[in-house]
Amino acid sequence: MARVAFVTGGTRGIGRAICQRLKADGFHVAAGYSGNEAAAEACARELGIMVVKGNVGVFADCQAAVAKVAAELGPVDVLVNNAGITRDGFFHKMDSEQWSEVIRVNMDSLFNMTRQVIEGMRERGWGRIINISSINGQKGQVGQTNYSAAKAGMIGFSKALALENARKGVTVNCIAPGYIDTEMVTAVPEEVLKGIIGQIPVGRLGRGEEIADMVAFLAGEHAGYVTGSTLSLNGGQYMAG
Ligand code: CAA
Questions:
Q1: How far is the centre of ligand 1, averaged over its atoms, from the C-alpha of 113 (Å)?
Q2: Cα 103 to middle of ligand 1, angstroms
Q3: Which H helix or E strand runs over 195?
């Protein structure tokens, strides 16, 4: 029977590429989204997948979204915690809302979403939690104390949860993308982005499909021995570990 995958932030950017790939691999796929109705509608129509609305920063929204997916497609076997936002700015100018919004959406979401699915995965003896971190959680980035903190926190979360579930057939891993050609990255001021691309040995931005390939591997049957890992896909920009 086809497995069920839920990808948060799945209607745009990297998340959409992940949905497309998992669907092609035979998963029943649901994409979470928070507000962009037009993108959600296009995603549902073009990819032929379920879309479900909710704010990953709010526990009750996550509970409701996962219940809807379970009712329609079945229990979630693969959770991709992909939804994320930036609120860039120097720390000495950052206000508490810029800080807490990013922590809520990028990190509290790990608890809010994963808590809904982990017990079922343990009971069924199979599961995949795939957390989309970032190069900037590994190396830090000017203007991103909030984002770097959340993305680094994601790595610690994944290691601890991987240990707790290693005997239960549930793997927990992070992917740390570098700069990928999405709206989030192209929103960086042009001159700053030019400088960043100059620091990428491969000489270009990454593509969502390249992240999706790695997600597909981690979500598959052959990846059962990969757990607690952080896989860097960044064109050589930062060579961690
Ligand atoms: N290191 C140290 N200082 C720097 C610097 C750097 N890299 N870049 C600029 N500065 C200095 C400037 O020289 C300037 O100094 P003075 O005031 O003394 O002249 C000061 O910082 C302020 O510079 P700006 O006027 O450019 O500051 P700003 O407030 O307008 O913008 C910023 C700062 C918000 C950090 C902006 O540079 C920016 O958006 N940077 C991009 C951050 C980034 O990479 N975000 C990634 C988004 S994509 C993503 O997150 C996906 C992913 O996972 C990879």
A1: 32
A2: 20
A3: helix 190-198
Distances, alpha carbon 12 to alpha carbons 41, 62, 73, 233, in Å = 11, 19, 21, 19
Q: Is residue 132 part of a domain?
A: yes
Name the residue with the closest Cα to ligand 1, atom 42.
143
What is the per-residue pLDDT across 13-58, written as a single tens digit (0 to 9) for each? 999 999 999 999 999 999 999 999 999 999 999 999 999 999 999 9
Structural domain count, the chain: 1
CATH of the domain at 48: 3.40.50.720
Q: Is residue 238 part of a domain?
A: no
Residue 129: give the domain boundaries: 4-233
pTM over 0.90: yes
Q: Are 16 and 42 in contact (CB under 8 A)?
A: no
**What separation in angstroms does the CA of 130 have from each of 40, 47, 80, 172, 216?**
22, 21, 5, 6, 10
Q: Is residue 88 part of a domain?
A: yes
51 located within any domain: yes
Q: Which ligand 1 atom sits closest to the C-alpha of 185?
A: 48
